[in-house]
Design a protein that fits this description.
Elements: H1 2-10, H2 16-20, H3 23-34, H4 37-53, H5 56-60, H6 65-89, H7 119-122, H8 133-140, H9 144-155, H10 160-167, H11 171-187, H12 198-211, H13 214-220, E1 221-230, E2 242-243, H14 245-258, E3 263-269, E4 272-279, E5 282-292, E6 295-302
Parallel strand pairs: 1-6
Antiparallel strand pairs: 1-2, 3-4, 4-5, 5-6
Amino acid sequence: MSTFDEPVRERTEPDLGVVVGERRRLTDLGYRLLGSLAEAEDAVQETYARWYAMSPRQRKAVESPGAWLTTVAGRVCLDMLGSARVRRERYVGAWIPEPLPDRTEWAGARADDGRSGPADPADRVTLDESVNMAFLVVLESMTPAERVAFVLHDVFAYPFAEIAEIVGRSPAACRQLASSARRRVRAEGRPAGPPSGQAALVRDFKEAWEAKDIKTLVGLLAPDATMTADGGGLVGAALRPVEGSALIAQYIVHFADKAPGLELLERTVNGVPGLVAQSSGVTVTVAAFDLADGRISRIWAVRNPEKLRAWTEHGPG
């Protein structure tokens, strides 16, 4: 009897460690699809809720828990993207994806022994070129189906046959969706990685901002540069993009004048050099940058406090 029962005991339930071990990858996927860590975590929670809502017999029948969880997470995110479009039409001002700090700088993280603090969520989001702000903004221009097909195939290397099950279209249609999304990315001229010299340029920009040196700021900005701010209607922010190097320089100097004691810090923002503005140790703005021809071409300034919860109040000096 023991030899007959042994295979049954081994297959009664997928290994818990395997199931839980998918959480980081699912959060990686959710963040890239939704542009929001909070929404990504909601999607992951919903995915696991559906997993554990199944009976043990149903879970045992799942051949690949990872593939099942990815399929469900993709469908949940697809639904959330549809409803998010409606919410963002009512959003006050511009909507910018939630910025992410370096994994060692999440709120509450510890620096002792070289370890980050809580593994949740610092150890769950992989920072690479697919999460830099410029790339995420391009993703925002895609339809929900395009975004899901493109991210799953081009970023996570999923075959179109599996993507078809998530999107509810044929593999050929999913291939077309990804191709259309790829054209959007190429049209934006997205580089494979962060432009060289970005850290030095951001540092020069910080120093000119601190000195309120409008002439130097204008020289660091491309003539047709654009700055987009996201206050979410909760804090002051320009409701429309500020265009042109002179206007941007004047705007940020005016912002500094209105916030005496503002401290500017060089930080990694979504995997590339950016700036963080703190007031009395509290992060009030996170700025991400894009470069073109050795100058700053775009600035995304996130001021909505609901999108700054992952940032430390006192980053390392």
